[in-house]
Amino acid sequence: TQAPVLISLSEESILSSNLRFIDFFVPGILAMSIMQSGLFGVLPLVEWREKKVLKRLGVTPLSRSTIVISQLVFRLALAVVQAAILLSIAYLVFGVPILGSWLLLLGLVVLGTLVFISLGYVVAARVKTVEGATPIVNLISFPMMFLSGVFFPVDMMPEFIRPVITAMPLTYLADGFRQVMVESSPLYPLSVDVLVLLGWLVVCMILT
After folding, report:
1. What phi, psi does 8 have (nearest 5°)?
2. Per-residue pLDDT, 90
3. Which of 148, 160, 184, 190 satisfies CB 3.0 to 4.6 Å to 170 for a cystine?
4. What's the confidence (pLDDT) of residue 185?
């Protein structure tokens, strides 16, 4: 009709614009630190059992649930402080923003910590010595460190290893952190990340 064009459209991604490597890297490092804190944090419990400390505590008025809950609360507090220090350094030194909800981020930190503590307890419940538990914990943590998208995107991984990546809880924790912190392009919807982590938590608690 040769009428003048009043409106024109242009497309621009709002998920990955201005995303630097450090913006990708910090959420992965946060997820990895939570994983290591949760898994390796159960080794003292194995040591207590090996040195008969738990047996001595068993003759005191303390219940088993009190001992376990105290360790759980301590590890959760440690994870929150650890996350706060890491995020403060990332923001002040590297300018990594927190674009999403701080409350949601805290919830993911707590959920991730519970998942990896419970996964560590699966090992601690079945291994009698620290020497036996340490290599098993390393065997669990090392593949997740390098295959869960902590250091580089999962899209760079070969297709044949994707089923392994999909099964790892750290994949979903790192993906959730990136969505909340820097609003990066998601691997999965955030609700899927949370549900998978909850599934891991429930299964590990049952096994423990």
Report:
1. -125, 155
2. 92
3. 148
4. 81
Identify the pLDDT of residue 49: 85
Cα separation, 87 vs 90, in Å, equals 5
- Per-residue confidence (pLDDT) for residue 128, from 0 to 100: 85
Amino acid 106: pLDDT = 94
DSSP state letter for 7: -
Question: How far apart (Å, rounded) are the C-alpha atoms in residues 147 and 162?
Answer: 9
DSSP letter string, 49-72: HHTTHHHHHHTSS--HHHHHHHHH
- Residue type at 18 in one-letter notation: N
What is the predicted pLDDT for the residue at 18? 66
- The CA distance from 179 to 193, in Å, is 10
Q: Which two tokens stand for residue 62?
A: 């303390």
Angle at CA of residue 89, ends 113 and 105, nearest 5°: 35
Task: Name residues whose C-beta falls within 8 Å of residue 46's C-beta, 6 or more positions apart in sequence.
Answer: 124, 127, 128, 129, 130, 133
End-to-end alpha carbon distance in the chain: 73
The first and second tokens of residue 150, run together, are 């902590």
**What is the pLDDT, as a whole number, of residue 17?**
52
Half-sphere exposure of 137 (CA within 13 A, CB side): 29
The stretches in the chain having pLDDT less than 70 are 12-18
Residue 26 C-alpha from the chain's centroid: 12
